[in-house]
Write a structure and sequence with these properties.
This protein is an alpha/beta fold and 344 residues long. It is built from 15 helices and 10 strands. It folds into 2 domains: 7-54; 63-311, 2-enoyl-CoA Hydratase, Chain A, domain 1. Strand 2 (98-105) and strand 3 (108-115) form a beta hairpin.
């Protein structure tokens, strides 16, 4: 069991404690308790599977924020060979909250860009707790332009609570930096694959989140605002974060159902932090598969499909409202035409 356990994992902690006590007792008494330990471990696996099959949206957010969860650079070390990091935005400085560089994913040469969190106070200060400044997004844009110039696919790994909202960001135009990235990412004629590996927070995630494929890990989330921020606005109290998480529809299953994500990457039982190597192997298989598919498309078709994909997001129909409008206009009632869809 990891040294850090989430509140809903307490039953697993207790079972693991009993296993350790049993193992210590067998060693002390020189008894063979392997059969009993194997039985207990099966019970732990069954209990873990049961718990994680019934996670609430708020509990999924907690898993996505687990301090032992693999971060973007952890995946890069497992996924890529010959990785060479590139630094700086050529305007202000090198923002460590966003990294990027060249490497090989199997036989494919790629440009990888990701948001990075820290494990302790020192590393968190170095990466600003995973919250990028404008120069981070300008660095990402510079690397994407470089990838397009040399016809290299772009892979982004997202794990950030959001872009840094402080005065320094505003002074250096954080909104403009993200907006330019959104515009420009629709123009690069190379395959672009986005993967949310943990937190996908607001515009900070979307600033490197435009792609031909949007993948999300099973216990990651992607949201326009954090549950705590939403609760503070709607209920005037951050303690309603669990209610906000459910209302926001931010889990991988919700995103897939709304066609905001293309595929859910399954995690090991208990989450990616339980077996980071297995998680990296599963992610690598998915990335290679999508990369091979996208490389079969000519650039003009790639760009057209990317534009259509995001243009279709946020489309909904209101049959009752349309029927009322038809009645007012004197039209005969009938099915809602396709062009009656509304956009938000």
């Amino acid at each position: 069991m990891p040294p850090y356990a989430l509140p809903f994992e307490k039953p697993l902690v207790e079972l693991n404690r009993k296993v350790e006590e049993l193992r210590a007792f067998g060693k002390k008494q020189n008894l063979d308790v392997s059969a009993d330990i194997a039985l207990m471990e099966r019970r732990i696996a069954e209990q873990r599977e049961k718990i994680f099959a019934q996670l609430t949206p708020w509990q999924i957010v907690q898993v996505a924020r687990h301090p032992l969860r693999p971060y973007a650079l952890d995946y890069v070390r497992e996924l890529l060979t010959d990785f060479c990091e590139l630094h700086g935005d050529r305007i202000h400085r090198d923002d460590r909250a966003i990294f990027g560089g060249l490497g090989k994913l199997g036989e494919h040469r790629v440009m990888v860009i990701g948001t990075q969190k820290g494990r302790d106070t020192k590393s968190n200060l170095e990466v600003n707790f995973g919250c990028a400044y404008p120069e981070g997004y300008r660095k990402a844009l510079r690397l994407m332009r470089l990838a397009a110039k040399f016809n290299l696919p772009v892979i982004t790994l997202i794990d950030t609570p959001g872009a840094y909202p402080g005065i320094e960001s505003e002074e250096r135009h954080i909104a403009e930096a993200i907006a330019v990235n959104l515009r420009e990412m629709f123009t690069f004629p190379v395959p672009m694959i986005v993967t949310i590996i943990g937190e996908g927070g607001s515009g900070g995630a979307l600033g490197i989140g435009i792609g031909d494929r949007v993948l999300i890990l099973q216990y990651a989330y992607y949201s326009v605002i954090s549950p705590e921020g939403c609760a503070a606005i709607l209920w005037k109290n951050r303690s309603y974060a669990d209610r906000a998480a459910a209302a926001l529809k931010i889990t991988s299953r919700d995103l897939l159902n709304m066609k905001l994500a293309d595929e859910i990457i399954p995690e090991p039982p208990g989450g990616a932090h339980v077996d980071p190597r297995q998680m990296a192997a599963t992610l690598k298989q998915a990335l290679v598969r999508h990369l091979v598919e996208l490389q079969q498309l000519p650039p003009d078709q790639l760009l057209a499909k990317r534009y259509a994909k995001f243009r279709a997001m946020g489309v909904y129909e209101e049959p009752a409202a349309r029927a009322a409008l038809e009645q007012v206009a004197g039209a005969a009632p009938g099915p809602v035409p396709a062009q009656a869809s509304e956009r938000v």
